[in-house]
Design brief:
Blueprint: E1 2-6, E2 14-15, E3 18-19, H1 21-39, E4 43-46, H2 58-73, E5 78-81, H3 94-98, E6 102-105, H4 109-112, E7 115-118, E8 124-130, H5 135-146, H6 151-159, H7 165-176, E9 184-189, E10 191-192, E11 205-206, E12 209-210, E13 212-213, E14 223-227, E15 233-236, E16 239-241, E17 258-265, E18 268-276, E19 283-288, H8 290-293, E20 302-307, H9 316-320, E21 327-332, H10 335-356, H11 361-373, H12 379-401
Parallel strand pairs: 1-4, 4-5, 5-6, 8-9, 9-14, 10-13, 14-16, 19-20, 20-21
Antiparallel strand pairs: 1-17, 2-3, 7-8, 11-12, 15-16, 17-18
Helix pairs in contact: 1-2, 5-7
The structure holds manganese (II) ion (MN).
Length: about 400
């Protein structure tokens, strides 16, 4: 039985305002599809964060639909689970997709009754599936699938006044413990103890604490294939993250991306191998002085520049873009220069310009709002500002009129 494990596609993601949809499409066409065709897995697993936003735009849905259609055409059975970035919008057609061996798991049913997969030779594996769900839905699911009157469930909710995802998982394991078939493979979207974070993960925070599940909790499983952490890694002898398909931050761009390949024979994991895949774009951090960078050869990579200049440079971003057309981020090595450049570039210039144009406070605030929010101010907010401005001016008068 051959398993290919991928995760955290984040279709529709933007990086510092740059949409990556074309790069993602290119990655699937030139890299991912050829690999899948080559490996021909008995099942492809995608452990969550399929799309980047719960409210995907049409472009993103189109790419997802193209990927699904390709998997269907090539007859690659595929199992998707929801991550914290996904929403049920993408599982709307799950009953139709299921008819074509594309499974979208958005509830806890297959934790109770494992998802059984059998290859042509009769090798069987059992997936216990834990998609990411908001707490209230998690609770609802437990009551639906295990019964509101179930004694273990009732006892649990009577005892717990404050719910933690961890506790709910513990409850699930307690409910499932007599229903273990082997090899038992857990699929989930969460952080586990000893896993390495990249900083790209939007944390599954509860009361300000990232929920990190203890390894001990899953000791009954033969192995775990997980999503959420963006680095490809093997956390313990049986816990695997395939990470995101592409680098989604400058810090992560130095680490290798890819998928995990597994082979199971007679219920035993006989092969585990990371398959590295090159990203469809180059990402790097460049450090230097402005005068050197502006005279360097043209570079199309996605770039973050760190300027070593101690004195702020005028409009460095716009000027360096002529050499680095995909410049995404610019900062100064010395944070003091950064602050003075910000005030020089924005506050002073904008303000002086406004003075030249003789804008009053109201107009100036409108301009400021537009600059920061990149949209016109709403009437309600503008009215509130005018009210406070009036109060402020009246207070000023009072102060002035004092002897
Ligand atoms: Mn993710």
């Amino acid at each position: 039985m051959k398993i290919l494990h991928s995760s955290d596609w984040h279709l529709g993601k933007s990086l510092f305002g740059k949409k990556l949809i074309d790069e993602q499409a290119l990655f699937f066409e030139k890299t991912f599809f050829p690999l899948v065709k080559d490996v021909k897995p008995d099942i492809l697993i995608i452990t969550g964060d399929i799309i980047d936003k719960p409210n995907p735009d049409l472009e993103t849905l189109k790419l997802l639909s193209e990927i699904l259609f390709w998997l269907f055409k090539e007859k690659i059975p595929s199992l998707f689970i929801l991550g914290n970035h996904d929403s049920k919008r993408i599982t709307l057609f799950k009953e139709f997709l299921k008819q074509n061996y594309l499974y979208m798991i958005d509830n806890l049913y297959h934790f109770k009754a494992p998802f059984i997969w059998e290859d042509e030779k009769g090798e069987k594996i059992y997936f216990y599936i834990l998609p990411y769900l908001p707490l209230y839905e998690f609770k609802e699911n437990i009551e639906i699938f295990w019964g509101k009157e179930n004694k273990i469930v009732v006892d649990f909710f009577v005892k717990k006044s404050q719910l933690l995802l961890k506790d709910l998982v513990e409850l699930l394991l307690n409910l499932t413990k007599d229903n273990f078939y082997r090899p038992a493979i857990a699929l989930g979207h969460f952080a586990i103890e000893k896993g390495i974070f990249t900083g790209e993960e939007i944390s599954l925070k509860f009361m300000g604490l990232e929920e990190v599940f203890p390894l001990e909790l899953f000791k009954n499983f033969d192995f775990l294939l997980l999503g959420h952490l963006h680095r490809l890694q093997k956390v313990s002898s049986k816990v695997f993250y395939s990470g995101s398909i592409l680098p989604y931050s400058f810090e992560e761009s130095v680490h290798k991306k890819g998928v995990w390949f597994f082979e199971i024979k007679n219920s035993v994991l006989v092969k585990e191998e990371p398959i590295y895949l090159s990203p469809s774009f180059e990402m790097k951090i460049v450090k230097g002085y402005f005068k050197d960078l502006i005279n360097s050869p043209k570079d199309e990579a996605y770039i973050k520049i760190i300027l070593k200049d101690e004195e702020p440079v005028l409009h460095p971003f716009e000027r360096l873009k002529t050499v680095f057309p995909n410049l995404l981020l610019l900062e100064y090595e010395d944070k003091k220069t950064e602050i003075s450049s910000f005030s020089k570039d924005f506050i002073m210039e904008e303000f002086l310009e406004s003075k030249k144009m003789e804008l009053n406070e109201e107009e100036l605030f409108k301009k400021f709002y537009k600059y920061i929010e990149e949209k016109e101010i709403e009437d309600k907010l503008f009215e509130a500002f005018k009210k406070y401005l009036k109060e402020f001016k009246e207070n000023q008068k009072e102060v002035k009129s004092w002897p």
